[in-house]
Amino acid sequence: MRQLFFLFIFTSTLLLAGCGSKQYEVTTKGGDIYTAKGALNYDVQSETYSFENEQGLGVRLNQEDIEVIQEKK
User: Fold this and answer.
1) Would you give the DSSP letter of residue 57?
2) Which one of 31, 48, 60, 72 has the largest count of C-beta atoms within 10 Å of its C-beta?
3) How do residues 20-30 score in pLDDT, each as one tens digit?
4) Which of 22, 24, 19 is nearest to 71 (CA)?
5) Is 62 exposed, middle or buried (0-12, 13-18, 19+ CB in 10 A)?
6) Domain 21-71: which topology?
7) For the chain, what are the domain ranges?
């Protein structure tokens, strides 16, 4: 019974952790669409947004090239 309780707690924790990370869809003026895992970082000096895509690769886009950023539901 105790093992079942700990298994339930562990599974619940994993499910809640998965729900906590937001994804954003970034559409460029050229029509390219990127999905960002987590929040985007904005660099004021270079006027760029950087983020990690679904494959775990780093992406950097100029602010002027971005049409819209919206949270995926």
Assistant:
1) -
2) 48
3) 579 999 999 99
4) 24
5) exposed
6) SH3 type barrels. (2.30.30)
7) 21-71
Contact of 25 with 69, CB cutoff 8 Å:
yes
Taking a C-beta distance cutoff of 8 angstroms, is the pair 67, 29 a contact? yes
Distances (CA, A) of 54 to 6, 13, 44, 60: 31, 22, 24, 14
Q: What is the reported pTM?
A: 0.69
Rg (CA), the chain: 17
How many residues are present in the chain?
73
CA-based torsion, 55, 58, 63, 65: positive or negative: negative
